[in-house]
Amino acid sequence: MKKIFEEFKDFAFKGDLITLAVAFVMAIAFGAVINAVVDDLIMPLVGIIFGEPSFNGLTWTINDSIIYWGSVVSALVRFLAIAFGVFFFVVKPYTMFKARVSGGDEEAPAPSDEIVLLTEIRDSLRRQA
User: Fold this and answer.
1) What is the CATH number of domain 2-105?
2) CA dist 125 to 105, 113, 114, 115, 117, Å?
3) What are the tens digits of pLDDT across the range 56-103?
4) Phi (first) and psi of residue 32, to 5 degrees
5) Average pLDDT of 16-38?
6) Which residue, 37, 42, 65, 36, is CA-closest to 55?
7) 59: left (phi > 0), else alpha (psi -120 to 50), else beta?
8) Second label for 85, Cα 20 to 30 Å away, from 23, 30, 50, 114?
9) What does the alpha-carbon distance between residue 54 and residue 24 come to, in Å, rounded to a whole number?
10) Which residues make Cβ contacts (< 8 Å) with residue 97, sequence separation at least 6?
11) Strand (E) positions, the chain?
């Protein structure tokens, strides 16, 4: 029993699991912010343009079956807003940061044939002297 507890402790407190848990909580919080932006900012603008503050009421009725296609459009707007937010507030800053940090780690380009030849001549002259 003690071995199982130790294995669980190793699993639960690894850095990867903690990092994943923090990322999950941050994603939920970010999703709440985006949902608020969509529900309280974007959809009222849609209401100004289209006369309805939400697409959720848009339906088709076929043979007594109601198809709520407006809900799909609302979910698509919400998805695009989340994708936009993630791209511009997470992905772009991260790639800019990585480019800035790794900018000095690049290897120097390989020397040209002339430089290699001149280096060999220099080294040969030093050995003769």
Assistant:
1) 1.10.1200.120
2) 33, 18, 16, 15, 12
3) 888 899 998 999 988 888 888 878 887 887 788 888 988 898 888 887
4) -65, -40
5) 81
6) 42
7) beta
8) 50
9) 28
10) none
11) 60-62, 65-67
